[in-house]
Amino acid sequence: MKRREFVTLIGGVAAWPLAAHAQQAQRMRRIGVLIGFAETDPDVKSWFAAFRGALAKLGWTEGSNFRIELRWASDDPDKMKTFAKELVELRPDAILSVTTPVTDTLVRETQTIPIVMATVADPISSGFVTNLGRPGGNVTGFALYEPSMGGKWLELLKRTASGVARVALLFNPTTSVPIKFYMASIQAAASSFTVQASTAPVHAQDEIEGAIAALAGNPGAGLIVMPDLFNTINRDLIIAVAARFRVPAIYFFRSFADSGGLISYGPDFAEQYPRAADYIDRILKGEKPGDLPIQMPIKVPLIINLRTANALGLDVPLGLLNAADEIIE
Q1: Which pLDDT belongs to residue 115?
Q2: What is the mean pLDDT of each run of 10 residues along the chain (329 residues)?
Q3: What does the alpha-carbon distance between residue 200 and residue 189 come to, in Å, rounded to a whole number?
Q4: Helix, strand, coil fractions of the chain, as percent rounded to 5
């Protein structure tokens, strides 16, 4: 063999692993997304747009080096099961799981595909992970609440509406985090403020009015609308019924206050989605989900709707107004 031919051959052999590596690095990645909200929800659409935008900033170009398999399940358990199975069978490189019920469905389908969860209340009590600092399995992501939040809701409601003597916790047992997660802090706050706390479970939309009407049948009624996919989807109805029966209520995220709810105190859901994109990026680049810690909210804004307070005849204390992150007038 001539020297020139030998050098060319050796050069080609040496270059082959590099070319193969480059080709592998540029292969099309697939991200599954299963969202437990309705596709028509404007808030959720904006969150998902933020997720897509964050991926773009990290160098992921949709249609070029990755594609998204997106499914909207609303609060329908059957759709969640169908779509979860469908996505897992596609064998994506990672899955973004939005809401607690969706994540619960997905972890039953796969223990190997990386899952990054968002808008999930408590991953430990839900059984998704056993350790926040080092999850260890195929699930990581972002939690929304801690148990002490329940007591804070009752305290804020009592400070906003001093006449509240009884509160009911509105939730759907099928779609809510187990209510016991919050009960210790709620009961401690109820004892401190001499308020009676009870649960108001509802299983369908047509049960909401009856639950609030029963609560309003006695003076001093107040409502804590618990973190719950069902409550989120039915927020306009809950707000309207609470207003009609003149029941002061506190809610778990700002969209309720924006839509006419009296007061909201809870995490900024939107900030989780760019962070979720960062976790997806890290997983696609080789990190293991079990090594990525579960992260808690960065911000927990307090929003007061002063228009609703005035309509209910409430005189919100100045100290509470000063403490608010935003006042809707």
Answers
A1: 98
A2: 45 46 66 95 94 97 96 93 98 96 96 96 88 94 90 97 97 85 94 96 96 94 94 95 98 94 94 97 97 92 97 96 96
A3: 18
A4: 45, 20, 35
> What confidence score (pLDDT) does residue 26 get?
64
Range of the domain at 315: 149-266+301-328
The count of residues in the chain is 329
Supply φ then ψ for residue 168, to 5 degrees: -115, 145
Tokens of 105: 């469905």
CATH code at 45?
Answer: 3.40.50.2300
Is residue 51 assigned to a domain? yes
Residue 322: the pLDDT is 96
Our count of domains for the chain comes to: 2
Residue 217, both tokens: 């049948």
- 70 lies in the same domain as 92: yes
Q: Are residues 85 and 220 in the same domain?
A: no
Which residues, 6+ apart, have CB-to-CB distance to 13 below 8 Å?
Answer: none
Would you state the structure tokens that stand for residue 274, as one six-digit string?
């760019």
